[in-house]
Amino acid sequence: MKQLIAGNWKMNGSPASAKALAAGLAAKPGAKCDVVLCPPAPLLSLVVAAIGSSALALGAQDCHANEKGAHTGDISAVLLKEIGCAYVIVGHSERRADHGETDAEVKAKATAALKAGLTPIVCVGETEAQRERGETASVIARQVSGSLPDAATAANTVVAYEPVWAIGTGKTATTADIAVVHFNIREVFKTLPGGSGAGALRILYGGSVKGSNAQAILATAGVNGALVGGASLDLEDFWRIIEATP
Ligand code: PEP
To answer: Which residues line ligand 1 (CB under 6 A)?
Structure first.
């Protein structure tokens, strides 16, 4: 299966840096994986122009569950699709923490994304406290079954496993731990209505992935790509991750 490398720029960048990063990546030779850039919403149109006719795809960092209406400050999946997005991240742990997003809300957002023709990248991951209590498997199972849309299939949805304690901290899970969690995610996915093709589900790992550790992580059983935060803001480091895909 072709791996997917997604760059989550979070609330970083300016028009000038976004243009330089997207154009720099677009000028690189073709990658053997799929690559998606997820800039802050005000930079989406600028990045889609900089991507041009390259193979890079555009993604957003969040969407609203409704198609339109009185939701000041929110963005619909329909509009994201219209301006050129192919993907949208939903349920990132920073949104679950900062905005109290529940599994049910994440599921509603992912459902809206699918309806609009976007591929949702649905994030799940345990906190450090949950991990220390030995709850990783149960937390992940609850998040996967509670956050994925009923219409999710391996072809239309991506899952990202991001242990909260590994995001932006420089700590990464061991490849053995990552393999176990990705195996469990696939097993839970199999039990969902559209789970029959679980073998083809793309499950990304996220949490302090960088050029120096990407090769080992991306070669781990059950890992089908990476969701990259900090390192996606550095053209050459992000490119090293892209080049590390098997
Ligand atoms: C993320 O934001 O999804 C992420 C994994 O961040 P970082 O790579 O910086 O840990």
So the answer is: 8, 10, 162, 167-168, 206-209, 227-231
Other residues' Cβ atoms within 10 Å of the Cβ of residue 153: 19
**DSSP letter for each residue of 128-186:** HHHHHTT-HHHHHHHHHHHHS-TT--TTT-EEEE--GGGTTTS----HHHHHHHHHHHH
CB 5 within 8 A of CB 217: no
Closest ligand 1 atom, residue 92 Cα: 3
The atom of ligand 1 lying closest to the CA of 210 is 8
Residue 58 pairs in a beta bridge with 37
pLDDT digits (tens, 9 = 90+) for 41-98: 999 999 999 999 999 999 999 999 999 999 999 999 999 999 999 999 999 999 999 9
The C-alpha R_g of the chain, in whole angstroms, comes to 17
Instruction: Give the Cα separation of 38 and 41 in Å (integer).
Output: 8
Encoded tokens for 28: 């690189």
- Residue 110 Cα distances to 62, 63, 88, 171, 228, angstroms: 9, 8, 8, 28, 20
